[in-house]
Amino acid sequence: MPSLGIPLFKALASPWQPLQVDDDAMQLRSSFLLVQHCLSTCVASLDANEASVFGTNIGSATRHNKIYDHMARQVLFPRIISSIHQWNVQAPCLDMIEFLDSFLSADLVQAILTEYILPRLEHHVRICQNVSDVECVHDWLLPWRGHFEAKFAQQVYPIMRETLARTIINWHPNDLSIFPVLLPWKDVWTPEDFAVFTHKHIVKKLIRVLNREFEINPKAQELEPLEWILAWHHVLPDRQFVALLEAEFFTKWLKVLAEWIRQNPSSAPREILAWYLGWKSFFEEHELLVEERICMQFHGALQLMQCIQQASQLPGLKALPSTYEDALLRGKKRVAPVNPKHAVHDVNMRDVVEEYAQLHNIEFVPRHKNQDGQQIYGFGKQHIVIDHSLVFIETSKGKFEPIDVDELVKRA
């Protein structure tokens, strides 16, 4: 039967374009399904008691579905392979696979996927030359994940990381167009693979910006380079991002503050406090004070500022991380408290209020009462509550309203 049927089916398949699921495709499928039904009806199984004439003359290697698969390979595969070789990988092709899956065996469809589709995808990922090419890779590659999940992880994603690294070699952090290129892969690659990639190819460029293009200058502060860095919050793994700020920003920031205090041991405390509050507000606006290790830097700054009032020796800064790698290692070793977010906020704002009280010789003490579970403090003649980064003043018995710290000082 194959020797008779194959030439006829080749003629029937001649108008068929494999990448198009049209009337010719449907007619071809109907014909193959008819042959499949005929084979399953007419060709006997090996253990049949009464083998038909087909069963006595056809070897076991070509019985039933094997005859059908043989015919499909001979008739369809040459046309499918030719179409795949001419296929633009950015054009839809999944419809062809779904169509073939409706009448071919799973083994044949899998052979098409692994022997012909996958190599084409790998090749086109590898030959991307610039960012504009890489930017759209996820659009045409990731729809194939359902067919290649394991093989993508083993074969294609490593190539993708090599290609992406090559195309962004001249990238500068002021170019935020990298986000739509990189972000689609964050939830596709494993967290470990994504972290290794950003560590090698992103963080080093961010460090270079902080070292060469950004200066902490209390008299004339330029923030734009820092904004480029902060844009990576929630893109970089948290441990990398915090370590980057801890070592490459806050170490320098605290040293600038310490030098400022050394040069002005008994003057300009109001100016220094305003500078501190400005930076704290800046980091709050960028939603960064939820990070415990960043809050710790502001607490360290308060300790330095208290030296102005106490006339004590400035604490040493040798314990600060000197490099990003050092901060990254420390972050791995630290164990965060169960719920650090609120506690660190409260400590910082309470210390700010206490600093204001010392600057203006205002009594600041806890009272033996609370408001909705919050500690009430006496600030001069006023009663206040500190909730996260906000201060509330008692305007009438049991009623508290938010107030700015400067205004609080005036009312004290």
Name the average pLDDT.
Answer: 85
In the predicted model, the low-confidence regions spanning at least 5 consecutive residues are 48-61, 335-347
Strand count, sense and barrel status of the largest sheet are: 5 strands, antiparallel
Q: How much helicity do the residues have?
A: 55-70%
Pattern of helices and strands: HHHHHHHHHHHHHHHHHHHEEEEEH
Description:
By secondary structure, the protein is α+β, with helices and mostly antiparallel strands. It folds into 3 domains: 2-126; 202-359, no CATH class; 360-412, no CATH class. Helices cover 61% and strands 8% of the residues. It contains 20 helices and 5 strands. The protein has helices at residues 2-13, 23-42, 53-57, 65-75, 77-86, 94-101, 106-126, 131-135, 137-141, 145-167, 179-182, 191-201, 203-212, 224-230, 238-263, 269-285, 292-310, 324-333, 340-359, 405-411; strands at residues 364-371, 374-379, 382-387, 390-396, 399-402. The protein has a 5-stranded antiparallel β-sheet with strand order 1-2-3-4-5. Strand 1 and strand 2 (374-379) form a beta hairpin. Helix 2 (23-42) packs antiparallel against helix 4, helix 5 (77-86) runs parallel beside helix 7 (106-126) and helix 16 runs antiparallel to helix 17 (292-310). The chain is elongated and about 105 Å long. The chain starts with a helix and ends with a helix. The relative contact order is 0.05. This is GCF C-terminal domain-containing protein. Residues 2-257 form the GCF C-terminal domain.
